Amino acid sequence: MGAAWTKTKRPPLALTKENVDDFMQQFDTIVSDCDGVLWTPLRGIPHVKEGLESLRAAGKKILFVTNNSVIPPFRKFERLGFAVQKNEVVYPAIAIGRYLEKIGFKKKAFVLGVEHFKDELRSRGVAVVPDKRTSDLMEEDLGAMLRAIHEDTDIGAVIVDLDVNLTFMDLVKATNHLKRPDCMFLVGATDSFVTFDEGKILLGPGHFIRTLEECSGRKAELIGKPGPMMVSEYLQEIHNLNMDRTIFMGDSLVQDMGVANACGMKKLLVLSGMTQLKDLETCDPELLPDYYIDSIGDLPALLGQRGA
């Protein structure tokens, strides 16, 4: 394969019946991404439920991390027929809300995100600004735009995630709040874009995060992947994880393999989502997985070979 592999101790290994026994002995807990691993927006992934059940049958603890705060994953788990506890699943809205609760945050938060994201923060006692969306269009006049920028020292955080109703003035106002060094800058999802079924592309908040960083001179604190907080603080504290005995399973090199690196976990890449095998030839060597598999749905057959 490509030059990236030559810089590592060994190339990523395809998970096979010959090495699955050694693989399974390396971890007690598996932390899994959701989108692209367990399901996609428009189609299911065959035999995913059986793959998850085969891991549980082998005595492995399974936890779930997703950057998707738009639609809570719990209903998808119900449709999949796989039971999870609420504290076994984390996404940025949960992690940010819990973090603000822990530090005793009492100010208002200027939030660029969908309503579910905002509701999760409100459930933790966070006063969200703007409280409600408006359909009013901004007057196309420089003076009107400047008058719309209001200093509010009670805003203690700018929080950014995917916001499908984002406006130019939202970015302008966020930039001005971030001029104050005491205003925190927290971000959830960091993807610049995501390619879905049929090749359709959705923009992620990554581009807007970089715009805010450039215009404000501030560096965002990553709560979502590849930032470590959802794993190293939320799941770690609740489930007392031993990172040396934990593996991360995901379909993204930057977000999923990145968070595995940040938390010191082993890495399993699945090829049912964003990444293709050819992408490993040119990716950052630090993001190369330890193992890869076409789909989690392939696990039952592999584990069946060893009597699991």
Descriptive account of the structure:
With 308 residues, the protein is of the alpha/beta class. It has 2 domains: 13-67 and 226-303, HAD superfamily/HAD-like (Rossmann fold, 3-Layer(aba) Sandwich); 92-131 and 148-222, HAD superfamily/HAD-like (Rossmann fold, 3-Layer(aba) Sandwich), CATH 3.40.50. The chain is 33% helix and 17% strand. It has helices at residues 3-6, 20-24, 48-57, 74-80, 92-102, 115-123, 142-147, 168-177, 206-216, 229-239, 253-263, 299-304; strands at 13-14, 29-32, 61-65, 89-90, 108-112, 127-129, 155-160, 184-187, 193-195, 201-203, 221-222, 246-250, 266-270, 291-293. Strand 3 (61-65), helix 4 (74-80) and strand 4 (89-90) form a beta-alpha-beta unit. Helix 8 crosses helix 9 (206-216). The radius of gyration is 21 Å and the shape is elongated. 41% of the residues are buried. The mean pLDDT is 91.
